[in-house]
Each structure stands twice: as C-alpha cells, then as structure tokens.
Amino acid sequence: MSSKFKPFVAPEMKMKELTLKSILLGCLAGIIFGAATVYLALKAGLTVSASIPIAVIAITLGRKFFKTTILENNIIQTTGSAGESIAAGVVFTLPGFLFLSAGEGGISSGEKYFDYLTILVLAIFGGLLGTLMMIPLRRSLIVKEHETLPYPEGTACASVLKAGEKGGTFAKTAFIGLGVALVYAMLQKVLHVIAETPAYMTKQANKIFPSAKVSGEITPEYLGVGYIIGPKIAGVLVAGGVLAWLCLIPLLASLIPGDIVAAQLVKLGMLANLQTPGGPGAWDPSTHTFNDWSLAIYQAYVKQIGAGAVAAGGFITLLKTIPTIISSFKDSLGSLKEKGETGNVPRTEKDISFKYVIIGSIVLVLLMAFLPQLPGESILNKLLVGLLVVIFGAFFVTVSSRIVGLIGSSNNPISGMTIATIMGTCLIFIAVGWTGKVYEPMALVVGGMICIAAANAGATSQDLKSGYIVGATPRNQQIALFVGAIVSSLVIGWTVHYLDTPTKAMMDQGITHAIGSPTYAAPQATLMATLIKGILGGDLDWQFVLVGVFIAITLELCGVKSLSFAVGAYLPLSTTLPIFIGGAIRGLVDWRQKRSGIQLSAEEEELGKGNLFATGLVAGGAVAGVIVAILSVNDNISATLAKVSAHEGLQRALGAGGYQLLGVLFFGAMGYMLYRIGRQKQVSIDKL
C-alpha cells in the first residue's frame, strides 16, 4: 500500500532543501532544546519531545523571516531534534561517572572521565551511531510499513509542516507560553518575588507523624511537563513520591536515631564524619540531630530504595517488550535482505550508501580503541568496548526505531534498554575476568553510548517519517542529522559540565559537584552507576535496593506500571507534585471536552493549544533555569543578583508562610491560564 502513497511534495519537484540557512536554524533550535533537556533531565529525570515545538518554530520564523520552503522547514526540524534526543541519552547515563565506586582519596573511579572532552566525544559517537544504524532501516520501517507503523510524533510534525504551507498558525500559543514562562522565571529565580519551593514539614519531635514533608518546586517547566504527559502518568509519578515522603520517611524517622542516619551518610560519602557538621539535612554533632530530618533520611535510605525500584521497573518494562523486540529485529533483518529497486531512484528514495554505515562502524570502533580520553587499561580493553557498542547498538537501535513507530518516542523504554546493556556488559566483563572498580567506567561508556544511540534512533525515525510524508530527500535528512548531532553535542557537553559547577553556597556545605545534589538529582545516571557498582564492585547496600525491587514487583502484580511509580519514589516530592498538578489540569480539560462531546485524534491532541502552551512553558522555564544557573556560578554575578532579590523584604512583610503562599498564588494563576488555553478550540487535522 505504501507504494501508492503520494508525498506532499512530488519526487520530481525541485525545491530548496538542504541549505545553509536551514542547517543553521536547525542547529540553533538543537542548541536551545538540547540545553533545556539537559536541565530538565538532571532535575526531574524526565524529558519531552522537542520535534513538534521545533516544527512549530520552523514554520513561523522560517517562513516569515527567512522565506524557507516546506522542505527547508523539515530540515530545520530534523537538525534540531537531534539535540533533544542526544541530551536525554547523555544526562541519563554519563553523570554516573561521578557515582561509581570510590577510588583513591574517596573520589569516584570515574570522576576523571567526567570532563567536557569525554562527554563531547561520547555524545557525538552515540549520536552518530544512532543515525548510522537507522540508515539501512529507513526503507523497511518508514516506507514499506507506512500503513502499519504510525510514528505519532513524526506524523504530527508532518501535519504542522503542511499546515504551514496552507497558512496554519500554531506558534502563537507556544510563544505565549514561552513568554509567560520567562516572565515567571524572572520573578522567581532573579527577583525572588515567587518562592521557589514552598514546603511544610512536621517536626521530628512529633510522635504521630514525624518529619513528613510536603513541598513543591513551583516552576513553569514542571507544570508544562505534567500537562504534556497527562493525568495518568503524572498521578503514578506523584504516588511514588507520596510513598517515599509521607510513608517511608516518617516511618524511618520514628525508628532510627540520628547517629545511625549520620553514620549511613558517612558510609555513602555524603558526610565527612560524625564530628563534622553539614551534609544532607545539615547534621549537628553537638545535638545529634538534623535540621531537615526528611532530607537526611531520603539521602541515607530512601534514595537507594528508589534506585532499586527504578532498576526493577526498567527491567520489567524491557521484559514486557521482548515479544515486540524479537519480532521487530526479525522483520528488520528480513527487510534488509530484500533487494532494493533498480534503475533510476526517485529523489524521495535516495539514502546515504550502506557502505558508509559499515565504514562508519569500523571507524567508530577504532577511534574508541585509540582515543586517550576514553576509559580502558589497554587497546584490547577499548576494542572490546567498541565492539560491544556496535553490537548492542545495532540491536537496540533496531528495537528503538520500531517501538517508537508503534507507541511514540515519549514511551520508548530507553531506561530498560540501557539497564539490559549495562547488565549484559558487566556479565561479559565478569566472564573474561574484568572485575573491580577499574572496569566500572568502561561499562558505563557502553551503556551511555547505547542510551544515546537508542534515543537518537527513535527521534531519527520520527524525523524520517515526517520527511516521507512531506516528500523530503532522505539523504539530506541523514546529513542534517549528522550535523545536528555534532553541533548539539558541543553545547550539551558544555551545559552538563557547567551545571555541575557548585555555587558558593554548595561549596560552603562541602559539595564539590552540583550534579547529584538536591539541585540536580540526576536520578537515571545515579541508577546506572548503582547497577554497575553492584555487579562489578559489590559496593552496594542490597538490603535497601531489594526493598525497591519488590515494591516494583508489587505494583506490577497490582496492574500498575512500576517504572513511573519508581521514578516518583526516587525523586523528591517537590518535583513530582507540581508535575501532578499539570497532569490534573490536563485531566480536567480532557473531562470537559468529553462532556462537550468533542472527540480528538492523537495528532489533534498533540497540536492542541493546551499542549502548545505547555510546550512553551517547558522550553521557557528550562532555558531560563539554564541561564540563571550559569550566571549564578560566577561570584560577582551571583552577588549582583542577590542585590535585586526581593526575598528578604517580602518575607519580612508577609512572614515566611505568607511569602510561600504568595508563590503558590502565582503558580495557581499560571495553572488557571493553562486550563483556559487548554479549553480553547483545538486544531482540526482534517483541515490541514
């Protein structure tokens, strides 16, 4: 049936496509959304697809100011989307270098590899691998299965691009959301008119419910993320937070003395010794108590329980998809054996030659073997790592590309694939006698590159689907993806490295890395390091991890998807609560639409005004967060920002509770605005 398909731009039509302006605009979009994704993934362990907002920006800015064609707009969207997917893969894994087993001086055995150059190399290699491995799959997955694999984000992006040609206006709502988020972030992060994290905690001396904390980091990006992922996932996420912060922490607070909690923090390297004040929760050795018991117990015990739950949830998710994985791999291999068309190949069927996939894979292995920036005791060590990357990459890129065709990039079980890769790599290392701390960074390199490659392959598949529908030249898209991967990686590595720089306040508390602190929890990366340490190093509190594993199993037996719940249990409630509020607003909007008899397709929901406004909130809030975080690292700028802060004045005038209530009112007003915009008439795909 796909042979009868007619793209929007006919194959014989000549039109500007891979131009300098389209590549530059795409790189700019990739840089912006890549940096925003780094920030969001470090804080919340979540990402949202950037393809649709980039397509919206392309048809608006591109057509209005640069007179771009639909094919140029497609290149902008294709180039830009690489940044978001690579950023997600990087942040989900590579900060794990900081959390591997301690070596000399108590410093992580992988810390020396957590530098800009190593992150840059791994990000580029992983991004290129994802695109390379997708080249031979395009014809089988995108063309031959056009009718059976919908690729929801790719189809929605194509609808946006076609609407742009017909005069459709989508960007206004997204830009309103962006503006609201920037103004809100200015009031919150610079002027401090809005409290950042309103909280209420019961006292440790409370005999009924000690050290129970309810808090919310009331930011526009969290509200937007919650609206986009919807009420079901947001509800399961916050349920995990409720278990951790309102069940486990009060229980442990009533049973465990402060000295025992402090000793556990010393064991984990978060506190120097029992005689030194500070650490999570601000330990006071003179009174043997913490200023914030809930934070101390969270870091000492609950975080490891959450890590065990996330590991089990990811692995269970992967097990559930094994039938799909096997059939996907078989179908894709079968299609590769079929002979391609002979004779003149239409423009819309021209791919980069398969020989470059082979050459690129060989070059990748050799570079990994000889580059000194990558971990490994010898060239032989590194060659095995390179071969494992290519082997696992070929398999999971195939799996990722087909799965996103069915369920979309947002539901792609990347964490499960990465966990399986890390476990498989560690078992291979053990089989050849490579055990101990020295091999932990090598295992993380394999897992990190596969995570980046699988994430980028999923995004690449959606881009190629958009291109197939609008009539793009695949070879031009593939070149754009290579360019986007390299350029975005330049900024992604820098953003990760810069956000890891501790502020003066952090350094005063003895924190040497901002990543891993409450500011940037990096939940996925911590999990990957925990698994590697547990298998290769044996340095793991299995009693807490196994509690998390069986929490995940319990949820699955109850029919609840455990991965989202586990992530919620791992993250602070301050992260999941505002996300839940965004999801609840989406649920209310959907309920009102159903009562009104409005039925929307998946594409129409993606392009709805509520979704576009929420996308603007995510982009604006995350970008503002990155900018403020970068500025705050500089002591002079930080001191200047402190001078314009209204925090102390408002707190004196309103009191601590009144100041926090003011922030909640601002957040409520933004939520009401999101609800009102979400209730506005949605875009009809039939009219595109």
In words, what does this structure look like?
It contains 25 helices and four strands. Helix 7 runs antiparallel to helix 25, helix 13 packs parallel to helix 15 and helix 14 packs parallel to helix 18. The relative contact order is 0.19.
* Helix-and-strand structural type: mainly alpha
Amount of helix: 55-70%
Strands of the widest sheet, in order across it, are 1-2
Task: Please provide the ordered H/E string of secondary-structure elements.
Answer: HHHHHHHEEHHEEHHHHHHHHHHHHHHHH
> What general outline do the C-alpha atoms trace?
globular
Low-confidence stretches: none
| Total number of strands | 4
Biggest sheet details: 2 strands, antiparallel
Strand content: under 5%
Termini distance?
22 Å
Number of distinct helices:
25
Rounded to the nearest angstrom, the radius of gyration is 25 Å
Q: What is the averaged pLDDT score?
A: 84
Keywords: Membrane, Transmembrane, Transmembrane helix, Transport
Subcellular location: Membrane
Protein name: Oligopeptide transporter, OPT family
Pfam families: OPT
Per-chain topology:
Blueprint: H1 20-44, H2 51-65, H3 70-93, H4 116-134, H5 138-143, H6 152-165, H7 171-190, E1 199-201, E2 213-215, H8 220-255, H9 258-267, E3 283-284, E4 289-290, H10 293-320, H11 322-337, H12 354-370, H13 379-407, H14 414-431, H15 440-470, H16 474-499, H17 504-508, H18 523-537, H19 542-557, H20 562-570, H21 573-595, H22 602-606, H23 609-633, H24 635-643, H25 647-678
Helix pairs in contact: 1-3, 1-16, 1-23, 2-3, 2-6, 3-4, 3-6, 3-15, 3-16, 4-12, 4-13, 4-15, 4-16, 6-15, 7-23, 7-25, 8-10, 8-20, 8-21, 8-23, 9-10, 10-14, 10-18, 10-19, 10-20, 11-13, 12-13, 13-14, 13-15, 14-15, 14-18, 15-16, 15-18, 19-20, 21-25, 23-25
